[in-house]
Design a protein that fits this description.
This protein is an alpha+beta fold and 301 residues long. It folds into three domains: 7-63, no CATH class; 69-202, no CATH class; 218-300, no CATH class. Helices cover 20% and strands 30% of the residues. It contains six helices and 17 strands. Strands 15-16-14-13-12-17 form a six-stranded antiparallel sheet. It has a five-stranded mixed sheet with strand order 7-8-9-10-11. Strand 12 (218-225) and strand 13 (228-235) form a beta hairpin. Helix 1 crosses helix 3 (171-180). It is elongated, with a radius of gyration of 22 Å. It starts with 10 loop residues before the first strand and ends with a strand. It comes from Crenobacter caeni. This is Competence protein.
Length: 301
């Protein structure tokens, strides 16, 4: 693997927070860019014909992970900008491998699992299935992160860009690696394909019990759903749980249909946990489900 000190910084952060390539900015300090890793001001060295074009720190040499962090952020921006991805076989639907359009791409999402918070590079949705995307430049998904993702029943695609920070990246070559290359990605955990990860299977007793967690701040209220009601709890993380009476069959079907692909079923508490990015959409659809209002207004508990 190429040593970090030999890797040149090809991408930098512009004042508007966009990641830019070395060949699309003005030379020298006029580039007005900062290091995506250490936030130090950078110089653009992109006018010569001998050395490869790259960014350099205005003062000093920067930290040991600046080139890798820049590549990592650029890869995520490629994903968000293009909203498409080569997915290995197993996605719900026809189940075949191929490049798919992504309906949703939300970068840097914090999710709350039963075993603690987990941050994913991107939370995406395709063909009604929600899954995470992780881009591995220096760090792969470790055992603890895999455990938390498994507890969320959240399929995760890991894209391997490790050892490539010193390559002469362009936006085109990076886009090919992130969006279209079949051989550098796999589904986690345990290589299970999408659509075959029911919550009851991924949250088995083989997992070590979670450490007791401190009490969390939350807010709770009741909403009408279809012909009945559900109780909503908002946690400090931004995730929401949605509980309904077990005997309310119609309400159960409505909630299940709306929440599927936007969270997971918590069998311990017998409620749905909806991820923060999908809360507004879920509430709007639940509100439209009300068939015959019975004077049940939103009320705090």
């Amino acid at each position: 693997m190429t040593q970090l000190k030999q890797a040149l910084i090809r991408f930098a952060r512009r004042a508007d927070a966009r990641i830019v390539h070395i060949d699309e900015v003005d030379n020298g300090a006029a580039c007005a860019c900062h290091c995506p890793s250490c936030d130090a001001p950078l110089l653009a060295k992109n006018k010569g014909t001998v050395r490869e074009h790259h960014f350099a720190h205005l003062q000093g040499v920067g930290g040991p992970h600046c080139a890798e962090s820049a590549l990592h952020l650029a890869a995520k921006q490629v994903l968000a900008d293009h909203a498409r991805l080569y997915l290995p076989a197993g996605l719900s639907g026809n189940g075949q491998a191929g490049v798919r359009h992504l309906d949703t791409v939300l970068l840097e999402q914090r999710l709350e699992s039963p075993h603690g918070e987990v941050i994913v590079d991107a939370l995406t949705a395709c063909e009604g299935v929600t899954f995470a995307v992780e881009v591995a430049v220096t760090h792969f998904i470790d055992a603890e992160k895999a455990r938390r993702l498994r507890a969320l029943a959240l399929p995760t695609l890991e894209i391997d860009l490790s050892g490539l920070a010193s390559d002469a990246w362009t936006w085109n070559t990076l886009s090919v690696q992130v969006l279209e290359t079949p051989g550098n990605r796999r589904w986690l955990p345990d290589e299970l394909p999408l659509g075959e990860l029911p919550c009851a299977e991924v949250r088995k007793a083989e997992e070590a019990p979670a450490e007791p967690e401190p009490a969390k701040e939350f807010d709770r209220w009741q909403i009408p759903v279809g012909p009945g009601y559900a109780r909503v709890t908002r946690f400090s993380s931004g995730n929401h749980s949605i509980w309904h009476p077990s005997h309310a069959t119609t309400v159960r079907k409505i909630v299940q249909k709306i929440c599927t692909g936007r969270g997971y079923w918590d069998r311990d508490y017998q409620n749905w946990v909806v991820f923060r990015p999908f809360i507004q959409q879920v509430f709007e659809e639940l509100a439209r489900s009300v068939q015959q209002p019975r004077g049940l207004e939103n009320s705090r508990l």
